[in-house]
Design brief:
The chain has 8 helices and 43 strands. The chain is mainly beta and 762 residues long.
Length: 762
């Protein structure tokens, strides 16, 4: 062959070989593991990955693994998408290093999770969206965020909900009660895992003693609920639902500090080990007294409190489960004149108010699943509450023993869901011998039989009916019917109607008694009868179709409660009493009624980590006694709440704004309108959550408009105004929660990546 031709052929072969080599080298492979965001991440099989501006694409296998091949060199954009999750794009430069690992891709869900929460309060254990009775659920993530605002008690968790007001009952001791839709706290029943927690004697102290560390969710039923829970549930029910242990261990340690020199230290531990599981909650709070107004009295009392609650769970068999637990709380609450608290008292500033309380409770719950033949549940709780209320010239001391036992049977058959139950409740209050000369002790026991039946006409129509028959040893028989209807008209619009009756046994433990420190409060006369209520709610819900992750829900709630024979305080002068406390307070049935009705309009918006809600409540709470109509005291007619938050990956920031219109006070005066503004942020690492909260940014205090403590005639025997606004000023807290349980087990996504790395090495 010609040498020149041979040389040309050789050069052409080299060029061709070089081109083929470079072309083959440019065919890159990319691998990714796709899963959802969050601690309980799921592998997202079926996710599509597409190299933008090319035809290259692949689909994730059952293990969430995607393999893209033949990707050219250079910077490429890869888009991941799957129905129900937001699309995500990442940029990758090719070729990648030889030792590059599998890329982890996390997609954010578009779905709203609140409707997936199972409600326990109604005993049907169904999702909230299918229940004919409207139940507002504060889910676990929100409970945790809100609990960081005030880790020592649940007041901040429940106060964020529309229609719920946390009202202070003492100017110096910091005791509080909960009002629901304008009605007094005595008409609201508070439960913990379905067990009655606080009521009567323990009502105003109890809500400040419940730590939120172990809560999974909070369920709020507005409107009559007495058919299932007895007479106290006239305005509604607040059920605090505890976390249940799982195989994933949780060991959380919390510390919180406040600018007012208050500190919280807490522990929550839980784990499931085969057939046995446990949880343990413990928290301690120290709080230094503080005078925010400069009037010489403590708006924030000195406080020492500790709480411990162990719970044990047993899977006795495939069908049988047992839960046994208890709670113990001790609290020393000390307020009054600052000079007295600092051991500098003089003859004028020597007033104090000291509350020492002890609360012990036990709970027992046994469940037996008969599968197709239904489910049997037996449970009981016992509560012991002792309280000493001491002021310089008076002592009120007593013990409350209360219990609630129930056995119920639930049967589900296709469209039918029925619950039949029998319960027995006791409430005995014994006033100590060294307390008031006229004892206000009582002893109630009540036997109740209830039936609840739910029928699903279709997926869109559900009706629920029930009735309770109660027999009380003093006040005999009460019959309480209940009816609820749910209709889902289409994918956008649904309605709920709820009607029922209730009753309330009369005791001296009313807000007016607490404000009077029980001085000269007379025992309940034998002629006094229980209050009777009729009420209902109408709920309209519009849930607009999701548009590219934008979710809008509109709720309109109409509520109405009519209370007959209302228990009202009556003040009379005692001609034989020449002391400064010469006014007796007795309770009688008013000749008329109390009526609370109104409208609650809420708009909720969420979009890619941004959430906002706007709620307006109009409440007309009035009374007509002896044909004279008046506005009920301490009820804001107009309330506006604006809550907004932004969450991205591990960071959350939120702002809360509340407006309360002026309220009428019992003495005829009118309070001021109130604005409350708060800001909270938190950042979550795998093993640590950092949080901070700024309360009452506008520094709105009732004492800015005038004193709440008046001389009578001196400050050694003061008089107090009713409290309708914050007494504390700007308050800042910061803390952390150490999640020790995260050290003990790798999460599923990491395990998947480790397995893939091991496979590559092999």
């Amino acid at each position: 062959m010609n040498p020149i031709l041979r040389t040309r052929k050789l050069l052409l072969s080299c060029v061709l070989l070089l081109f083929v080599t470079q072309h083959l080298a440019a065919q890159n492979t990319f691998r990714a593991l796709v899963k959802s965001e969050g601690e309980d991440a799921e592998l997202l099989a079926g996710t599509t990955a597409h190299v933008v501006d090319t035809t290259l694409a692949a689909i994730a296998d059952s293990n969430g693994m995607i393999v893209l091949e033949n990707i050219p060199n250079g910077e490429k954009t890869i888009e991941f998408s799957i129905l129900g999750y937001f699309k995500k794009r990442i940029k990758i430069s090719f070729p990648q290093p030889k030792n590059s690992s599998v890329t982890e891709i996390k997609l954010q869900t578009q779905a709203e999770e609140i409707d997936e929460v199972v409600v326990t309060s109604t005993r049907n254990y169904q999702k909230a969206e299918y229940l004919p009775t409207r139940v507002e659920v504060v889910a676990e993530a929100e409970v945790e965020e809100r609990s960081h605002d005030k880790p020592s008690d649940v007041s901040h968790v429940v106060r964020e909900q529309p229609g719920v007001q946390v009202q202070r009952t003492s100017a110096t001791a910091g005791t509080m009660s909960i009002r629901l839709q304008g009605l007094s706290s005595r008409y609201v029943q508070i439960l913990k895992d379905g067990f009655p927690l606080f009521g009567g004697f323990s009502n105003v102290i109890g809500i400040t003693q419940i730590p939120p560390l172990d809560l999974k969710q909070v369920e709020i039923i507005k409107g009559p609920s007495s058919t299932l829970y007895g007479g106290d549930a006239i305005a509604g029910v607040i059920n605090l639902v505890s976390k249940e242990p799982t195989e994933k261990p949780i060991y959380d340690v919390l510390f919180n500090g406040e600018s007012s020199f208050a500190f919280d230290g807490g522990l929550y531990a839980s784990q499931k080990i085969k057939w046995f599981s446990f949880s343990l909650t413990g928290i301690y709070r120290y709080q230094k007294e503080k005078d925010w107004s400069g009037y010489g009295f403590s708006e924030t009392p000195r406080l020492n409190r500790y709480n411990i609650s162990p719970q044990l769970f047993f899977d006795l068999s495939k069908h049988a489960k047992l839960n046994i637990g208890g709670t113990y709380t001790y609290e020393n609450r000390f307020g009054g004149a600052m000079k007295y608290l600092r051991n500098e008292a003089d003859s004028n500033y020597n007033y104090f108010e000291k509350n020492i309380s002890t609360h012990a409770s036990s709970n027992f719950k046994f469940e037996y699943d008969l599968e197709k033949n239904g489910k049997l549940t037996a449970k009981t709780s016992f509560n012991y509450f002792n309280r000493d209320l001491k002021i310089p010239y008076y002592l009120f001391r007593g013990t409350q023993l209360a219990s609630a036992s129930e056995i119920n049977y639930r049967l589900t058959r296709k469209k039918h869901d029925a619950v039949v139950g029998l319960d027995f409740r006791t409430d005995r209050f014994t006033e100590a011998d060294d307390s008031a000369s006229v004892k206000r002790s009582y002893n109630f026991y009540t036997v109740g039989l209830f039936v609840q039946y739910l029928y699903n006409f279709s997926e869109k129509t559900t009706i629920e009916g029930g009735v309770r028959l109660d027999y009380n040893n003093i006040y005999k028989v009460n019959v309480l019917p209940h009816l609820a209807l749910r209709q889902k008209w289409n994918e956008v619009f649904s309605t709920r109607l709820n009607f029922g009756m209730g009753y309330k046994l009369p005791t001296v433990f009313q807000d007016e008694s607490e404000e009077a420190r029980f001085i000269n409060v007379q025992p309940i006369a034998s002629s006094v009868k229980p209050e009777i209520s009729l009420g209902g709610t109408v709920d309209l819900k519009i849930k607009l179709p999701s548009f590219n992750g934008l979710n809008i829900t509109i709720n309109q709630l109409y509520f109405y409660t009519h209370i007959l024979r209302p228990l009202l305080p009556k003040e009379t002068a005692d001609p034989l009493n020449h002391s400064l406390d010469s006014i007796n307070i007795s309770y009688t049935n008013g000749n008329g009624f109390i009526r609370s009705g109104g409208v609650e309009t809420g708009i909720n918006i969420s979009y890619r980590g941004i959430g906002a809600s706007l709620v307006y409540s109009y409440t007309d709470n009035s009374r007509q006694i002896n044909n004279v109509r008046s506005i009920a005291p301490l009820t804001s007619k107009h309330i506006v709440s604006i809550l907004a938050g932004y969450e991205i990956k591990n960071f959350f920031a939120g702002i809360d704004v509340y407006y309360y219109s002026p309220v009428k006070l019992s003495d005829g005066r009118v309070g001021k309108s109130i604005w409350e503004i708060g800001l909270n942020v938190q950042y979550a690492f795998k093993y640590l959550i950092l949080f901070s909260n700024f309360e009452n940014i506008a520094n709105i205090r009732q004492t800015s408009y005038g004193p709440v403590v008046y001389p009578n005639p001196g400050y050694s025997h003061p008089k107090f105004s009713e409290i309708y606004a914050p007494l504390e000023g700007r308050l800042f807290n910061v803390g952390f929660k150490l999640r020790l349980g995260a050290f003990s087990k790798k999460n599923k996504g990491d395990d998947g990546i480790e397995r893939l790395k091991k496979k590559d090495n092999e």
